[in-house]
TrEMBL record:
<keyword id="KW-1133">Transmembrane helix</keyword>
<feature type="domain" description="HAMP">
    <location>
        <begin position="59"/>
        <end position="111"/>
    </location>
</feature>
<feature type="transmembrane region" description="Helical">
    <location>
        <begin position="537"/>
        <end position="561"/>
    </location>
</feature>
<feature type="transmembrane region" description="Helical">
    <location>
        <begin position="733"/>
        <end position="751"/>
    </location>
</feature>
<keyword id="KW-0808">Transferase</keyword>
<feature type="domain" description="Histidine kinase">
    <location>
        <begin position="119"/>
        <end position="332"/>
    </location>
</feature>
<keyword id="KW-0418">Kinase</keyword>
<keyword id="KW-0904">Protein phosphatase</keyword>
<keyword id="KW-0902">Two-component regulatory system</keyword>
<keyword id="KW-0346">Stress response</keyword>
<feature type="transmembrane region" description="Helical">
    <location>
        <begin position="449"/>
        <end position="467"/>
    </location>
</feature>
<feature type="transmembrane region" description="Helical">
    <location>
        <begin position="691"/>
        <end position="713"/>
    </location>
</feature>
<dbReference type="Pfam" id="PF02518">
    <property type="entry name" value="HATPase_c"/>
</dbReference>
<dbReference type="InterPro" id="IPR003661">
    <property type="entry name" value="HisK_dim/P_dom"/>
</dbReference>
<feature type="transmembrane region" description="Helical">
    <location>
        <begin position="399"/>
        <end position="416"/>
    </location>
</feature>
<feature type="transmembrane region" description="Helical">
    <location>
        <begin position="473"/>
        <end position="496"/>
    </location>
</feature>
<dbReference type="GO" id="GO:0004721">
    <property type="term" value="F:phosphoprotein phosphatase activity"/>
</dbReference>
Length: 874
């Protein structure tokens, strides 16, 4: 039962849905704000919880509509065995019930249509075959002519009766069967009907038991048709020499007719089915056969037309055979209620063997069952939002991944809040990575070479938090670790694919909602949902209750718990809850990204090269000329000396080399775009075209590499003049990485048509990750401190304020400073973290950061008495 199933209005449901979602979002946001949770974490968690509440309350509201669409498609293909959930009390539930009724009625009509075609074909074939044989014998002069003609006449009369029955059936279905009543002597009508049936020469006896002078109002033709059909049916199912009895009697304002035979009778389970068109039983054929299967259906229609009822009853005591009774009013109603010959209603529907289904072509986008299944998910509104970019392939629920995400979330909530990055952070990252890797393994049993490289890089980048204390390099490495893990999940190849992967990760929280629903349904649908919930609650209760009892009873166990279990204080409880939900959400989103990755690298249309060579060569030539002008200016500045530079620009050499470093970095990055565009638009059909492409792009790449070298040289001079910082080191590596990509881009452009450039995106990702690992490996804060100390030894210049802000990674290098400067740059050691904050940088700094003592003769703040150039700020 869905939460809002009993609400009888869709408008009220939507109102409750909006109100509940808004209320939950407001409460969660307020708790996060009061607990001091950072907005970058509280906002996603608030949105995620609000969406979860919305999904919970909206469960079942629109699924009948989507399933009706799916069922309507199947019905259009001729499959009427569909049904949709229709348990709600609102308008959607009413529509679902009406849809199911319509599907059932159409299915019955379709089945009767197929039965009609099959039975009519069979009934027509028998007399036509016999008639054909007789005529062939007459043509060949075989047999007695009067006897043959008598046989042919019998078969023709049989065909005539069948046609008359079919016409009656058509008039009933068309509603064009009027009732013309008059006074009818029932006894005389029965004698006439018996005489008509006796003329068929069936070897049975007929008995009439009817009161004298019983006159009723009825349509004599229709009533005769009713009685004749009943008598004919009884005679055909009676053995030779058997007796057929027709009885009539008055019952107040009604009268009845009963026809009894001496045949095998009809089982109670089959008594309603024989009134269906062509509803003859298999036993009937053995007892005479020859019926069309329409007689009793027409008898029921005549009974309904007169406002009566007809049914097979148990035989009389001491007798056997079938007993059919018709109850009719003495005066039929003016507007009788007709029951269709097709039994669409419950009182006439009985279990029938399923008719043979005609072969139908299958459509891959349609489910083969009426409800959702892992292989054929119910279409949702998200399919319209994401379209072909991210289709829901119907991957089944993965409860193990869900549990893994829960475990990662719990670890995140227990190990990360109120701690610096360290061993606890690495544990959470590796647990999250294991869940994502497991998700990828469920899709592809054997990871590709690129995936293996990404997994190794993820482990190396994640482990930086256990070796380095510098927050900036740890943060960069962790972000890159997540990026390579996600790209391994999606299989991104191009630079655009890598960027789309980053965008897809937060969107996975929305796109994966149906998948999470199928995951939870896979547990509850197998009957394990309540058991899992019960087991979880009981286990947690056992852990908390007995854990508290034993930890308070035994001091040794209590010390172990204090050492290995995080301290969950009330003031950090809300932050831990937010972190738990946040980590759970991002890990589950990444797992869905691995299980059902989007189509981020869809094959693009082949670029149409330009018709004329100058169309691409001229723009590239302009860029080459601009690069050449810049390089000439650089050479003039270098060889002209600082006096010429000052006279020309008014800048010192140090100011000159710092002035345009950012622009050079952007120019290097844009060179990659120029190379990519030229390689796509340049024709390569002739040898001359390929030669011009290689010359132009090779010259451009060479100039770009010279610019990279110039930028690195400028940064070196600037660092020598103003000192070394972490940002300047990172920019050096970034510029060198861009130069490497320029070379790779040139190779990809020249190799177009051989290997293409699809590998360039992965090369950029992997090389960038390796570059960050290299920066972390050289211990950037220690490298910065060592170079500034060497500069101090050469020039006597040092910025103690900047060095004081370095992480613990730089402490061993800073210990080389003189005592007075060491007291200025080494902050007091006030850390109280536990083993979950451990990393190598902080471990090496332990014992090296002294308690602060002011310089001799001064009680002032160290920043006021220590030397500072204040020039390290970028």
């Amino acid at each position: 039962m869905t939460p809002l199933e009993r609400v009888s209005s869709i408008k009220v449901k939507l109102g409750l849905l909006v109100a509940a979602s808004a209320l939950v979002a407001a409460v969660v946001a307020s708790v996060g704000r009061l607990a001091g949770v950072s907005p970058w974490m509280s906002i996603p968690v608030t949105i995620g919880i609000a969406l979860a509440v919305t999904q919970l309350l909206a469960a079942g509201m629109t699924s009948p509509l989507r399933q009706m669409t799916l069922a309507a498609r199947r019905m259009a293909r001729g499959d009427y065995s569909v049904s949709v959930p229709a348990g709600g009390a609102d308008e959607v539930g009413q529509l679902g019930r009406a849809f199911n009724t319509m599907a059932s009625d159409l299915g019955a009509v379709d089945r009767q249509r197929r039965d009609l075609v099959a039975n009519v074909s069979h009934e027509l074939r028998t007399p036509l075959a016999a008639l054909t044989v007789v005529l062939e014998n007459l043509v060949d002069g075989v047999g007695s002519e009067p006897a043959a003609l008598q046989t042919a006449l019998g078969q023709a009369e049989r065909l005539s009766r069948l046609v008359e029955d079919l016409l009656d059936l058509a008039r009933v279905d068309a509603g064009k069967a009027p009732l013309s009543t008059s006074s009818v002597d029932l006894g005389q009508l029965l004698e006439t009907c018996v005489a008509e049936v006796r003329a068929d020469a069936r070897e049975v006896t007929y008995e009439i038991e009817a009161p004298a002078e019983l006159v009723v109002d009825a349509d004599p033709d229709r009533l005769s048709q009713l009685v004749v059909n009943l008598l004919d049916n009884a005679a055909r199912h009676s053995p030779r020499g058997g007796a057929v009895t027709v009885r009539a009697g008055a019952d107040g304002e009604r009268y009845h007719l009963e026809v009894l035979d001496s045949g095998p009778g009809i089982a109670a389970a089959d008594r309603a089915r024989v009134f269906e068109p062509f509803g003859t039983l298999s036993a009937s054929a053995d007892d005479g056969g020859g019926g069309t299967g329409l007689g009793l259906a027409i008898a029921r229609w005549v009974t309904d037309l007169h406002g009566g009822t007809i049914a097979f009853l148990d035989p009389l005591a001491g007798s056997a055979g079938a007993r059919v009774r018709v109850d009719l009013p003495l005066r039929p109603p003016a507007r009788p209620v007709l029951t269709p010959l097709t039994p669409n209603h419950e009182e006439h529907a009985m279990p029938t063997p399923p008719a043979a289904e005609p072969a139908r072509p299958t459509e891959p986008d349609l489910a083969e069952t009426s409800g959702p299944s892992p292989a054929n998910p119910t279409p949702s509104v998200l399919d319209d939002i994401f379209g072909t970019y991210w289709p829901d392939t119907g991957v089944g629920g993965r409860f193990g991944l869900f549990v893994g995400a829960v475990v990662a979330g719990l670890l995140g909530g227990l190990l990360i809040p109120d701690r610096n990055a360290g061993l606890g952070t690495v544990i959470v990252l590796l647990a999250a990575g294991a869940v994502v890797m497991l998700a990828g393994k469920q899709v592809s049993r054997r990871p590709s070479g690129f995936q293996m490289v990404c997994y190794v890089l993820f482990a190396l980048l994640s482990s930086v938090a256990v070796f380095r204390d510098a927050e900036w390099i740890v943060a960069l490495c962790l972000v890159t670790a997540i990026a390579v893990l996600l790209c391994a999940s999606t299989g991104a190849k191009t630079l655009l694919g890598i960027m789309l992967t980053g965008i897809s990760w937060p969107l996975a929280g929305l796109r994966g909602i149906p998948w999470v629903g199928r995951t939870l349904t896979s547990v509850s649908g197998n009957g394990h949902g309540a058991a899992v919930a019960r087991t979880t609650v009981l286990s947690l209760l056992g852990l908390v209750i007995f854990g508290l009892l034993f930890t308070t009873a035994d001091a040794m166990l209590g010390s172990w718990v204090d050492r290995f279990v995080p301290d969950v204080r009330p003031d950090t409880f809300a932050a831990r809850i937010f972190m738990t939900v946040f980590v759970f959400g991002v890990v589950l989103g990444a797992a869905y990204l691995a299980v059902n990755p989007p189509r981020i690298d869809r094959s693009e249309r082949a670029s149409q090269p330009v018709a004329n060579r100058y169309e691409w060569l001229a723009p590239v030539g302009v860029v080459v000329a601009v690069f050449a002008a810049f390089l000439i200016a650089q050479a003039t500045a270098v060889f002209g000396g600082e006096d010429h530079l000052r006279a020309t620009t008014g800048l010192t050499y140090a100011e000159y080399v710092h002035q345009g470093f950012g622009q050079l970095t952007v120019a290097t990055a844009l060179t990659l775009l120029v190379i990519w565009a030229a390689a796509r638009k340049a024709p390569v059909e002739t040898v001359a075209d390929r030669l011009w492409l290689r010359i132009a792009l090779g010259l451009l790449a060479a100039e770009a590499l010279v610019v990279v070298g110039s930028a690195l040289y400028r940064m070196h001079l600037y660092q020598e003049a103003y000192g070394f910082t972490q940002l300047r080191l990172l920019v050096d590596v970034f510029e060198a990485w861009l130069g490497l990509l320029v070379i790779a881009g040139l190779v990809a452009a020249v190799a177009r048509g051989i290997a293409g450039g699809a590998w360039l995106g992965r090369f950029a990702l992997v090389s960038g990750a390796i570059a960050l690992i290299g920066i972390a490996a050289i211990n950037p804060d220690a490298w910065t401190a060592e170079h500034n100390i060497a500069r101090y030894e050469e020039t006597g210049k040092i910025d103690t304020v900047y060095l004081r802000g370095l992480s613990d990674d730089a402490v061993p290098a800073l210990k080389k400073l003189p005592a007075d400067l060491r007291r200025c740059v080494l902050a007091p050691d006030e850390r109280t973290g536990d083993w979950l904050e451990w990393n190598l940088g902080r471990e090496r700094a332990d014992g090296m950061t002294p308690t602060y003592d002011p310089p001799i003769g001064s009680e002032a703040d160290p920043a006021a008495v220590c030397p500072s150039e204040n020039r390290y700020v970028d």
